[in-house]
């Protein structure tokens, strides 16, 4: 029996449709995965800087912690000398909310804000500090803001929902 021209019509259609569907699905999955990874790891450098600071405090190496904070002999911090640093972060801290407790001391949140990163540091049961790390200078400072300034409501909502995925990374 001879096949006519129209008998072959549409034979490759299913394979082509399956290939197009799989290609589109792969692009969507790759885009979502890369976007999520970027969001989770965007503050990694600044978080590691604060983790080094916390590690120095935990080991009692306050000179290194002060250097990680961004203060050196070549470039001292104006208005925040080493004695003031020790009263804030040392074991004999005179801060009303108490000295750092080594089992509690650690990062609890990280949020990217324009030219810096706002990091929340649990110091002890009663004390939580907001730290600001300038992205260009890699210097730690006390945050001038309680929350990121000029953030739109959608970015805040995204941080409050997907930002919880970042918790194990901190």
Provide a short characterization of the protein structure.
With 170 residues, the protein is an alpha+beta fold. It has helices at residues 13-41, 44-59, 62-69, 82-89, 153-161, and strands at residues 106-113, 116-122, 128-134, 140-142.
Which keywords apply here?
alpha+beta, elongated, single chain, 170 residues, 2 domains, 5 helices, 41% helix
What report would you give on this structure?
The structure is a single chain. The protein is an alpha+beta fold and 170 residues long. The protein has helices spanning 13-41, 44-59, 62-69, 82-89, 153-161; strands at 106-113, 116-122, 128-134, 140-142. It has a four-stranded antiparallel beta sheet with strand order 1-2-3-4, with helices on one face. Helix 2 (44-59) packs antiparallel against helix 3 (62-69). It is elongated, with a radius of gyration of 26 Å. It starts with 12 loop residues before the first helix and ends in a 9-residue tail after the last helix. The model has no long low-confidence stretch (mean pLDDT 85).
